[in-house]
Write a structure and sequence with these properties.
The protein contains 13 helices and 13 strands. It is an alpha/beta fold. It has a domain of about 210 residues: Spore Coat Polysaccharide Biosynthesis Protein SpsA, Chain A. Strands 1-12-9-11-6-3-4-5 form an eight-stranded mixed beta sheet, sandwiched between helices. It has a three-stranded mixed beta sheet with strand order 7-13-10. It has a two-stranded antiparallel ribbon with strand order 2-8. About 25% of the residues are buried. GO terms for molecular function: beta-1,4-mannosylglycoprotein 4-beta-N-acetylglucosaminyltransferase activity.
Length: about 400
């Protein structure tokens, strides 16, 4: 007790400090609100609109169009690959094989090499038929591997096994194998693709391939011309590995696609050295050596299946992309299924390829079996963009 009758305690001091602190906080909050009101009084309606509408829409636009933005800015972050060494390609049916080899700077063999054609099969029954008919006179052994899994890990039937009766014409020269998919969710589809391609090496050994035999490595829809393979099997001193420059088409042979196709290769096989692959393996590129007809399907359902199945399935950014009416409209217009910009390395190339592809009404220099059976494969011919729905 203090002399003047008042008492003192620590608790009383704490209460006083708390009250003061609360008062100060309230004053600070009031001051902050006052400052905010002052700031907002200086902002006009257009700025409100920009902050509350334009900015969120812009952020959403960037999110949904990120793939396009990335493609357009590709020249800033990725340099073009090393240019190929282009080998001129000479051919005419009335020129002898000896002269054709000489024109390429190669010698002529006493007898042709054996040729093995190896593919991983998904569901392209019609294109496989056209491919094998084109190559039939020159192939020693056809090798086909099929899985019950797509590259993206989706289960699928063995389509070739179901349609095998259509390929009786080459059954005696067929080495056919199946491989079970691993079905690993979330895995990069290119891992499954590599797993299936590596399995072909075992099939090749079963088929009896030997040193210096020719091996064609390409997807089913990458079709070397018959005369190209005949040239390479008869000529001596050809490069150990050759990439094939293929005329590129999309949806049918009506739409030449200005995107270079070079992944198909022909190898002079080396036991223990040659491995089946689908990437750049040499600098040498043989010009005008065949056709690449990508997404060339008879039915809309086949388009949808491939869009979900192959290694670039991440490009399906919305269920709307798989709408059958949308796909049919795109096929007839010649625009991109994935609404993407051209994947090129310079702004000039990107801008030059914007918009729909140019229609071509020429059916010159197409696979012979296709032209001999034009009624059956009408959907692949110029001027026939409508597809079956089933």
């Amino acid at each position: 007790m203090m002399p003047d009758g008042y008492s003192s305690s620590k608790k009383t001091d704490d209460i006083r400090e708390d009250v003061c602190g609360q008062v100060q906080q309230a004053a600070c909050a009031a001051l902050s609100m006052t400052r905010l009101r002052c700031i907002l009084r200086g902002v006009d309606l257009k700025t409100y609109l920009f902050l509350l509408v334009i900015v969120p829409i812009s952020i959403l636009g960037i999110y949904f169009q990120s793939q396009k933005i990335t493609c357009f800015l590709r020249p800033l972050w990725q340099s073009p690959p090393k240019p190929f060494v282009n080998i001129p390609h000479y051919y005419h049916p009335n020129v002898s094989m000896e002269n054709l080899c000489k024109l390429h700077g190669w010698g002529i063999r006493k007898y042709p090499r054996r040729v093995f054609d190896a593919v991983v099969f998904n569901n392209e029954v019609d294109i496989l038929t056209i491919r094998w008919k084109e190559l039939d006179p020159y192939i020693t052994q056809f090798i086909l591997l099929e899985s019950n899994s797509t590259f993206s890990g989706l289960p699928k039937p063995y389509f070739f096994a179901t349609n095998r009766d259509q390929f009786k014409f080459m059954e005696p020269r067929l080495t056919y194998g199946t491989i079970g998919g691993r079905f690993r969710k979330g895995e990069n589809p290119f891992v499954e693709e590599a797993y299936q391609r590596v399995a072909i090496d075992q099939l090749l050994r079963i088929a009896g391939i030997q040193d210096d035999d020719l091996l064609i490595m390409s997807d089913v829809d990458e079709i070397p011309s018959g005369h190209t393979i005949n040239l390479l099997r008869w000529c001596d001193d050809i490069p150990p590995i050759l990439h094939l420059h293929l005329r590129n088409y999309l949806y049918s042979f009506e739409f030449p696609w200005d995107h270079r196709s070079w992944r198909a290769t022909v190898h002079r096989y080396r036991m223990g050295k040659t491995r089946y692959a689908h990437f750049r393996q040499t600098d040498y590129l043989l010009s005008d050596a065949g056709w690449h007809c990508s997404f060339c399907f008879r039915r809309i359902s086949e388009f949808i299946f491939k869009m979900k199945a192959y290694s670039h399935n991440d490009r399906v950014r919305s269920p709307h992309f798989l709408n059958p009416k949308r796909i049919q409209d795109i096929i007839c217009k010649g625009t991109d299924l994935y609404d993407m910009l051209p994947e090129e390395y310079t702004f000039k190339q990107i801008i030059g390829q914007l918009g729909p592809m140019t229609h071509s009404y020429s059916a010159i220099h197409l696979p012979a079996y296709l032209l001999n059976n034009a009624d059956k494969y009408k959907y692949l011919m110029p001027g026939n963009c409508r597809r079956e729905s089933g």
